[in-house]
Structure formats: C-alpha cells, structure tokens
Structure to design on (233 residues):
C-alpha cells in the first residue's frame, strides 16, 4: 500500500467550480510534488515543494494553485479549469529537502482522476 | 533529445515466463539514478526498483531485476515468473544529481500484458 494518500480518488467539476485535491504523507519526506498525467503519456511535473516552500513551478497556469500547509500535507486548488485539464493528478514525495540527490526515490500516491465538464 | 527511450510500446508475455522491458538513457552526468515504476489501470505509480550509477551489482527486488549496462547506457527491467497482476504500464525513469524533481525524467512507457 502506498504511504502517500490522495483524496478524492475521482472528481468531476464544472468549469466555474472551485475544488481542491489533497495529499498527505507520513514518511517524514521534505519534498512533495504534483504531477499531471494524460492518457497513455508519462507524468509531467507541475510543482515541487521543499521544506514547505514552493521551489519549482513548471510554468503551470494560474488556475492551478498549490499550497503546502505543513510538511505532511500538500493541496492543489483548482479554479476555472478547462476540459483539457482533465487528467490523472499524482502527488509524490521524496526524502530530500535540500539540493536533492540522484539516489532519492520519488514515491507516488494513487492519484486523483479529474474530469472537467 | 529524449533522455529516456523505451522502444517497446507494448509487450506480451505468457504467465510464468520471464520478460525483459528495454530502457536506454542519455546523460553526461557521472552521478545518476535509474528507476522503474509500474502503473496499473487504477492509476497508482508503484516504485519497483532502483539502480545507482556507481552500483557495481545489478539491483534485484524479489521477481524484479535490473540489467544495468553502463557502457551501453541501458537499464532493462527483467520480470521473472510473470503473473497476471503484472499487466500494467511500466515506466523507466532517470534522476540526475542536483535539483530534485526537475531532473527526474520519465520514459514514454511500455504496456505489458500477461496472457493466461
């Protein structure tokens, strides 16, 4: 079983709705990530938090707003999404919080399936 | 240029047989890590096995082993005694030293189907 927990598992939202995806890890990891994955494609990095501070934003549209309330929690706030934003959203964590290292494994959650209608 | 290449979009294997999933990579770093993940249709990305660039022995984890050939820049995943539950998408990934996350690159994936 994964130690990265994501809720909800499935979410359907309209283009004017505001919703949030939530992620929690209790492995003491200091880096947390959001990835977006379209069908039949590998995951694409969206955001990286290190020690609860946003360190990487891969030019993601502002309708996606990440938040890291503490070292165990990571949220992704969604507002005014488009149908093309429908995808699997994966949260992940890894042990390092500093400059990182080649050997640090990234552990993923089960994902949240998002459909924008 | 693609940093991770997986040349097999789809593979079939008979239950209880072994199967090799190919992965080649491109990096100029001396320090890097190679990872394999399994993604069933449920969506979860499951970490399987890791190989460090300085590791002299091939990594093994239960039925999974990694055939690491550094000079050829290949890191093939070998699954022994395939099971029906092994049917999934498999991603090879590489992480270079330095900035985390940004330097974690996935290959396009291979879909494995295990036949009864």
């Amino acid at each position: 079983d994964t130690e990265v927990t994501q809720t909800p598992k499935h979410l359907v939202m309209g283009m004017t709705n505001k919703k949030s995806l939530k992620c929690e890890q209790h492995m003491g990891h200091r880096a947390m990530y959001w990835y977006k994955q379209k069908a039949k494609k590998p995951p694409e990095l969206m955001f990286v938090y290190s020690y609860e501070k946003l360190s990487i934003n891969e030019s993601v549209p502002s309708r996606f707003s990440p938040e890291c309330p503490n070292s165990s929690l990571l949220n992704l706030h969604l507002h005014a999404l488009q149908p093309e934003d429908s995808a699997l959203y994966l949260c992940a964590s890894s042990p390092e919080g500093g400059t990182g290292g080649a050997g640090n494994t990234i552990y993923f959650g089960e994902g949240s399936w998002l459909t924008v209608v | 240029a693609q940093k991770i290449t997986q040349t097999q979009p789809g593979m079939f294997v008979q239950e209880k047989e072994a199967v090799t999933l190919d992965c080649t990579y491109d990096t100029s770093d001396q320090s890097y890590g190679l990872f394999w993940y399994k993604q069933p249709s449920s969506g979860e990305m499951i970490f399987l096995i890791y190989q460090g660039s300085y590791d002299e022995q091939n990594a093994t984890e239960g039925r999974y082993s990694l055939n690491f050939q550094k000079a050829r820049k290949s890191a093939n995943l070998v699954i022994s005694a395939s099971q029906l539950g092994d049917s999934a998408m498999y991603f090879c990934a590489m992480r270079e030293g330095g900035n985390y996350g940004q330097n974690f690159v996935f290959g396009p994936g291979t879909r494995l189907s295990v036949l009864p």
